Amino acid sequence: MTDSNLQEIRTELNRRKKVDQLFAIVGFLVILFSILILVGLTLQMAISGIYRITPDFFLSFPSRKPEEAGILSAWVGTTLVMFVTAIISVPLGVASGIYLEEYSRKNWIADLIEINVTNLAGVPSIVYGLLALGLFVYILNLGESILAAGLTLALLILPIVIVTTREALRAIPNSLREAAYALGASKWQMIWDHILPYSFGSILTGVIIGLSRAIGETAPVITIGALTFIAFLPDSPFKGEFPFISLAWLQAPFTVMPIQMFNWVSRPEAEFIANAAAAGTVLILMTLTMNTIAVYLRYWFRRGIKW
């Protein structure tokens, strides 16, 4: 190789390094600009509604008088709906991801399922609402209930949980699987004792991302008949006599935080706009709390594995 060829290679490498550095700088600036806009909008919303965030705001039902209106029925409904969503979507999604990645044969059927699951993750939420309206409300006769809403949002985030579970399992090196087999472990022992502990953090991140999306969805729950004004709470899940647990609340009407915010924003009074800003701040805090719990659990599990 001549000196001229070496010089051309060095020149091309330097050019590519400069392009990479320029791309990194542009990407960093775009991310920084987006974060600043998001933080600015969030702070503006919080400042607009912070004075309304009082204990009475959490313990009062909606009212035609903005100074007396609260989010009691909305945050209780959101909590119950998200509980049903998590109970249904997380075990089913994680189990499906494990089966598709570890047990299913790698053939055209598996490829077809993977393509469809990936595509379902990008389907607009209103489509899930229409599907739930026909299946859960009309065919299964679940009505406009917390159970129907939980099932709807579970369908919405199920592809996300499945995809993230499969990606988390793929990230585990095959040497770990081979080592478990070499020690005489069965396939399920290998997955339960070795693969899942190492991939739990990534799986949990995907679950929280899905639940964070579900907690802010409005179109699906409106489609199945969520109420925009509700001044009562569902029945308590607990009761004084045996078996001490009641499932009547699953059939109760409900509302959620995004719908309550939409109801207030659509009113002309400025005080209702402040109520909506306060409710939005509470919703963001709920989402941040979920993410904080996920970060802590991920750190705790990884620390346990390391030790």
What does this structure look like?
The structure is a single chain. This protein is an all-alpha fold and 307 residues long. The protein folds into two domains: 3-50; 53-306, MetI-like fold. Helices cover 74% and strands 0% of the residues. It has eleven helices and no strands. The protein has helices at residues 3-49, 55-59, 72-103, 108-120, 125-139, 146-170, 174-182, 187-215, 219-223, 257-265, 270-306. Helix 4 crosses helix 6 (146-170). The longest helix is centred in the N-terminal third of the chain and has 47 residues, at 3-49. The radius of gyration is 25 Å and the shape is globular. The protein starts with a helix and ends with a helix. The mean pLDDT is 84.
Instruction: Report mean pLDDT, rounded to a whole number.
Output: 84
Describe the largest sheet. none
CATH class of the largest domain: Mainly Alpha
What is the CATH architecture term of the largest domain? Answer: Orthogonal Bundle
Shape label: globular
Total DSSP helices: 11
Give the low-pLDDT segments.
Answer: none
Order of helices and strands: HHHHHHHHHHH
- Global structural class: mainly alpha
Give the helix proportion (percent range): over 70%
Radius of gyration: 25 Å
CATH superfamily of the largest domain: MetI-like
| Beta-strand content | under 5%
The CATH topology of the largest domain is MetI-like fold
How many strands?
0
Subcellular location: Cell membrane
Domain ABC transmembrane type-1: 75-294
Membrane topology: Multi-pass membrane protein
Transmembrane segments: 21-51, 71-100, 120-140, 146-165, 195-212, 218-235, 247-266, 272-297
